[in-house]
Amino acid sequence: MALLEVDGLSVAFTTYTGRFSQTSVPVLHNMTLDLSRGEIVAVIGSSGSGKSLLAHAILGILPGNAAVSGDIRYDGELLTQQRQEALRGAEISLVPQAVSYLDPLMRAGAQVRTAVRGGDPVAEQRKAFERYRLPEHAERFYPHQLSGGMARRVLVSMATVSGARLLIADEPTPGLDPDIVRETVTQLRELADSGTAVLLISHDLESALQVADRVAVFYAGTTVEIAQASDFTAGGSRLRHPYSKALWRALPQNEFEPIPGAQPQPGSLPPGCVFAPRCTLATDDCTAERPAMKELRGGKVRCIHAT
Ligand SMILES: Nc1ncnc2c1ncn2[C@@H]1O[C@H](COP(=O)(O)OP(=O)(O)OP(=O)(O)O)[C@@H](O)[C@H]1O
Ligand code: NI
């Protein structure tokens, strides 16, 4: 059984359009995802596709103006707000997207110690620093004294000393040099191999594919495909959704063939399939209704033309 199951998750934000009028803007719609122990699922999508919001919905840290519907199950049971609060930082842990998440007024070592659940905080912190190759004296540094790469490793240390069973890493490698990227994703792989379920959120399909078992492709607030990592091969013919194929082909080592157009904004989604305006396969049927997620060749796809 999957440790985490996200089924039909939708999130809308209430925003004020004037002094007395408000509208509801849907930002996630009908998201589907599952994740098992020992598995890395990479969540791939361009900026604004809803990756961080999915993470925040699972953790229960969406802002107050968010309306959430659909089911999130953890370990077979609905993840209610009460359970989210109990599990957050303990069983479910986040490596946040921004290093500004670190407390600027607290030394790095002390911050990591506050996250320790079980065992001696100092010993656990030092073990984590050693594991993530942080020099011992870095425990006395304040966040502004850490390099970008070191700060990221402190965040990974914080997320792992809790002994989490579900780790959500939101863009853990932005702008890092290739060696550190490889090191970071390898650490996530090691955690997964020891039984942790890892959700790896990333723009970077290439580095995610080094370690992921499966890939969830996001577009304009929904899951358009869930593929095996091994489906990303050759010309992309094993991929199921035209957008996944386009992402794959746009990589420099493939055909480097970008597609025209841009991802639609949450407030102005096209009718029917959200990818239709950019899709070479699109027909009139595509604009009739939002395509349902269907099982196909050991994966899932939201496209009526997928074969
Ligand atoms: N508090 C909010 N109120 C209104 N809209 C929001 C809010 N937070 C996020 N959004 C919108 O929701 C959409 C998805 O945002 P999200 O942060 O999940 O994207 P992302 O895929 O993580 O992007 P990135 O790769 O840049 O981190 C964006 O269009 C964003 O503008
Ligand atoms: Ni994000």
Question: Could you explain the architecture of this structure?
Answer:
It is a single chain. The chain has 307 residues and is an alpha/beta fold. It has a single domain (4-91, 164-301), classed as Rossmann fold, CATH 3.40.50.300. It is 25% helix and 25% strand. The protein contains 8 helices and 12 strands. The strands form 2 sheets. An 8-stranded mixed β-sheet has the order 6-7-8-3-9-10-12-11, with helices on both faces. It has a 4-stranded antiparallel β-sheet with strand order 2-1-4-5, covered by helices on one side. Helix 3 (108-114) crosses helix 4 (121-131) and helix 3 (108-114) runs parallel beside helix 5. It is globular and about 65 Å long. It starts with a strand and ends in a 6-residue tail after the last strand. It binds adenosine-5'-triphosphate and nickel (II) ion. Residues 51-52, 97, 170-171 line the site of nickel (II) ion (NI). It is a peripheral membrane protein. It catalyses: Ni(2+)(out) + ATP + H2O = Ni(2+)(in) + ADP + phosphate + H(+). Its EC number is 7.2.2.11.
Strand order of the largest sheet: 6-7-8-3-9-10-12-11
Structural class: alpha/beta
Could you give a short account of the major beta sheet? 8 strands, mixed
Q: Kindly report the name of the CATH homologous superfamily.
A: P-loop containing nucleotide triphosphate hydrolases
Q: For the CA atoms, what is the radius of gyration?
A: 20 Å
The total of beta strands comes to 12
What is the N-to-C succession of helices and strands? Answer: EEEHEEHEHHHEHEHEEHEE
- Bin the strand percentage: 25-35%
General form: globular
The CATH top-level class label: Alpha Beta
Please report the distance between the alpha carbons of the first and last residues: 27 Å
Instruction: Name the helicity range.
Output: 10-25%
Level-2 CATH architecture: 3-Layer(aba) Sandwich
Catalytic activity: Ni(2+)(out) + ATP + H2O = Ni(2+)(in) + ADP + phosphate + H(+)
EC number: 7.2.2.11
Family: Belongs to the ABC transporter superfamily.
Pfam family, one: ABC_tran
